[in-house]
Amino acid sequence: MGEFFQGIADSFTKTFITEDRWLQLLKGLGVTLEITFFALLLGVAIGFLVAIIRSTHDMNLSNRKCHVFGDYVLKVINAICNLYITVIRGTPVVIQLMIMYYIIFSSSREGIIAAVLSFGINSGAYVAEIVRSGIMSIDRGQFEASRSLGFNYTSTMIHIIIPQAFKNVLPALGNEFIVLLKETSVAGYVALQDLTYIGNLIRSRTYEAFFPLITVAVIYLVIVLIISFFLKKLERRLRNSDH
Amino acid sequence: MKKLLTAILAAAMMCTTAFALTGCGDESSQGADTSNVVSSIDDLPGKTIGVQLGTTGDLEATKYEKEGSKIERFNKGGDAVLALSQGKVDCVIIDNEPAKAFVAANEGLKILDEPFIEEEYAICVAKDNDELTEDINTALNELKADGTVEKIILNYIGDDIGKSPYKSPDGVDNSKGELHMATNAFFEPYEFYDGDTVVGIDAMIAQAICDKLGYKLVIDDMDFDSIITAVQSGKADFGMAGMTVTEERLESINFTDTYTKANQVIIVKE
């Protein structure tokens, strides 16, 4: 029995203490958070933009012919957005990451920028569809009331529709953020030292599977718990205005 | 609340734009940098070194981390070489024979004359499986004695490639069942894909050993850093992937006698 615990203590020491491996794990966590954070910003920016274009098109042009020049422009931009969503949602994120790193950024050493761009662009496609569903879910009456009060189209979107839509899509957006965080675990494919990569690195040095894998899993779980805690809080704050 | 949301959105967009712009700036400044030339082992400190995760090259290169080198570890040796030819790393440290195959396949790369370190390959078996270790050692020594191992190696390295392929003797029995070999089949000429079968020096020696012992050989291809864990946990019976005996590995796994010598070399851009 004593031997058993000695074995556990040994592999614990090997996994965390030897060569300051806990510090490496911490650095890996930093890289994971860095990629996730910037990809999140990029994804949200792209997502909202694409969603607004797509829903503007769907609300105004889907059932009628183009009249003015602006209508044609909108049609073209909408087609581009559609293509973007189709391609990005239709291909695995690992492949997109490798395309970004080995083909598009082939002359650059900045793996992290390639990762942020590919995860951000990937997330943007999903966010776009989530936000679009939110915008389309707002009753048409809200739109008409706002227009009759003298708001133009843009300010109706910004002040009336998007705030309500945002509240509706928050749970789904939270889902997407959590998925994004976990998807960054493939960053090791382009030699980025993220959390999963450090776990693999320690595994390749100690030949112990238990502690590195469980530790990495627990760290991801804890971050997701923290994210969901704040999302819940935000959801509650936004719901206050319902009363 | 609405104002807050708008502000957050605007801030997010601005951050992203600013970030994307700085990213472009970094790229152009990197492109002009030409001081990252490695021409001997002494040049390694401070450079960016590409390796395959968990290999001897990785273990040895990691020692240079203290001297300011940056180690980029890839899942496959080929990815490290690709990164080298794109200038993402300054050099790649990898086993001699695969290095030759990579250099032959990629223009503009060369192998430095001085070997990085010398090493010997062996087969790894789980710690509690002494019986298999002994069986493999017996078979391996017989194969070394009758020249089979040398023939197999000469079939893949040197001037007479393809002239002495290993063929299973007639009437071998594989009544004892299957023996699973864990390997990483992106390591020419030790193990690589020919069509959809894994061939190469390690695969053929493993076949010869299985023929001697009366097993049917099954090859499981996986990431290099998973091989030892797979053998340890019984997912595979033995691991064979140009694997060098090291102190750290011996703590977790047993090794058989060595079957060939090799070098770690440094690949650089011409």
Structure report:
The complex is a heterodimer of chains A (243) and B (270). By secondary structure, chain A is mainly α. Chain A is built from 9 helices and no strands. Chain B has 2 domains: 35-118, D-Maltodextrin-Binding Protein, domain 2 (3-Layer(aba) Sandwich); 119-262, D-Maltodextrin-Binding Protein, domain 2 (3-Layer(aba) Sandwich), CATH 3.40.190.10. Helix content of chain B is 39%, strand content 26%. The model of chain B is unreliable at 21-33 (pLDDT under 50). The chains are: A mainly alpha (243), B alpha/beta (270). The A-B interface holds A 38, 41-42, 44-45, 48, 102, 105-111, 113, 116-117, 120, 158-159, 162-163, 166, 188-189, 191, 197, 200-201, 203-209, 238, 241 and B 1-2, 5-6, 9, 12-13, 15-16, 19-20, 23, 26-27, 30-31, 48, 50, 53-54, 58-59, 72-75, 79, 82-83, 86-88, 224-225, 228-229, 232-233, 248-249, 251-253.
Structural class by helix and strand composition of chain A: mainly alpha
Alpha-beta content class of chain B: alpha/beta
Order of helices and strands of chain A: HHHHHHHHH
Span between N and C termini of chain A?
61 Å
According to DSSP, the number of beta strands of chain B is 12
Q: What is the overall number of helices of chain B?
A: 9
Give the biggest sheet of chain A.
none
